[in-house]
Amino acid sequence: MNEREMEPDEVTMGIVVQMYKKAGDFKTAEEFFKKWSSRNSAVVGRGGTSSRSRSKTGVNGDSSSASNVCLSNYTYNTMIDTYGKAGKLKEAGETFERMLQKGVVPNTVTFNTMIHMYGNNGQLAKVASLMEKMEGAKCSPDTRTYNILISLHAKHNDIELAARYLKKMKESSLEPDAVSYRTLLYAFSIRCMVSEAEELIAEMDEKGLEIDEFTQSSLTRMYIEAGLVEKSWAWFQRFHLGGNMTSECYSATIDAFGERGHILQAEKVFECCLQVKKLSVLEFNVMIKSYGISKKFDRACHLFDSMEKHGLVSDRCGYNSLVQMLASADLPEKAIFYLRKMRELDLVIDCVPYCAVISSYAKLGRMEMAVEVYKEMIGCGIKPDVIVYGVLINAYAETGNVNEATYYIETMRNLGLPMNGVVCKSLIKLYTKVGYLKEAQESYKNLQLFETGIDVYSSNCMIDLYSERSMVSEAEEIFENLKRNGDANEFTYAMMLCMYKRNGRFVEAFWIARKMRELGLMTDLLSYNHVLGLYASDGRYKEAVATFEEMVKSLVRPDNSTFKSLGIILLKCGVPKVAIDRLEMERKKDQESGVRAWASILSSVVDMDDDDDDDDNDDDVAIEVV
What we know:
Blueprint: H1 10-22, H2 26-44, H3 51-55, H4 73-85, H5 89-101, H6 108-120, H7 124-136, H8 143-155, H9 159-171, H10 178-190, H11 194-207, H12 213-225, H13 229-242, H14 247-259, H15 263-275, H16 281-293, H17 297-305, H18 316-328, H19 332-344, H20 352-363, H21 367-379, H22 386-399, H23 402-414, H24 421-434, H25 437-447, H26 456-468, H27 472-484, H28 490-502, H29 506-518, H30 525-537, H31 541-553, H32 560-572, H33 577-589, H34 591-605, H35 614-625
Helix pairs in contact: 1-2, 1-4, 2-4, 4-5, 4-6, 5-6, 6-7, 6-8, 8-9, 8-10, 9-10, 10-11, 10-12, 12-13, 12-14, 14-15, 14-16, 15-16, 16-17, 16-18, 17-18, 18-19, 18-20, 19-20, 20-21, 20-22, 21-22, 22-23, 22-24, 24-25, 24-26, 25-26, 26-27, 26-28, 27-28, 28-29, 28-30, 29-35, 30-31, 30-32, ...
């Protein structure tokens, strides 16, 4: 047309724009429209518009070039839809307003497009405004209008309004179609609104509307989530016996039962699928997954091995799933067996399955096997990533093996793999265990550079290191940062208490003990022992006994360390060592009666009735100091 100098008319332009829009090329659609508008506005404006002024419109200008062109309703609708799908809501709104200014009457398609666009972008106020304009324009909503309204209000969790629009549709003498019912039915199903869903199903059956496989699956899940397993089975049977279930629908049903641990029903669906000869790799994969969820790993392996009998060969997804499942279940021997079969079939394309097996061995403390699998992976030409090295480094960090951890850090660096936050945290853990302060400080500093940032565990490790070296100010700096961010936990406070106690700073230590109680951070045995030991060492016997009573009441079982501190209290209060030894013998014979005996003698020896304001005074001083 360009070669023949034929100007495309509005119909041609509309066809081309539609083509680009359907292809998802919204930018080219917009540019083509602007070019066409520019040419046509030049033709319209020849009587009074200079070529210079015309040249400022078109492709490089905005959509205002269309303002000089008389466009049809169809063209405006096309452009509004194009802008909406491109996410250009402002331009779509401006096109709609220009349409009204030009006196082009919007039709139902126009309003539907605008309502759908604003609704999808959460602008419900504009949706309400458009409904008012629609009424003012005497433009009646059609079935699609109501379907859009049902969908967008369900999407924004206003299920009651969505249901009212279905009712309003019927009142407007419009017949709801399959989309109307399916949209609302799905919204009811994911909210477990069983009676409402069943009412809609009855209507659909009465009207002879087909229930698609997506709705079948969502209703199955609804019944299962609602605890109505028998109903879910009856619902499945309806479609299975009707002979209109696809392979995908069988697999979705197996998955629905399997995810909730209804393994018997999942197996029955699998058998039904076998009977109608619709078994595919997909059904095997979801059934194996179901066995994994129910921890029936032998059955999962047996089913996997039986695939060949049915003329099927597992795919990469199936192998990966089985290897991951077995590795996560602390069954690395079985996992490596299937991983090697997977490798023989040339289905291993990355280090992910190897990483799962290495991690499983590492978790069990079998580092020699973890390293063997790592070497096997390297030998097969599979490149390890930073996650693999992170697993190995963390495993050696747990045991405090600096040499091995350092070896893998260096290997990782030599391969050009960047350090990440997980590896940094593992190194901090390692250096804390072996007491390498300088290296820990460097890793802690590096951790701050990553997006994940500092975590409470790594900060607690640093406080522990500083505490061991009586580096009080450094520990306090980290402690204050954790408090400021609301991250300080029970272990953080307990370590600070130990540090202050070790350095003879009892005022701050008592303040920490008070704060632990106030914040509800007295739940762990170690915390109770630290606080009890603090009170005992400073002669605050009443507070120590009260802590012991609170400990017993909280069902935290005291250990030898607890009774060692309590024994010191009794000795200092004049109780003979022989009597204390008898108490210990009684406790070791019968823990429950022994604890009661300790509590009884402690309350009789230590006067618990007198008030002592010393702790309150220390708290006031500590606030100033800390």
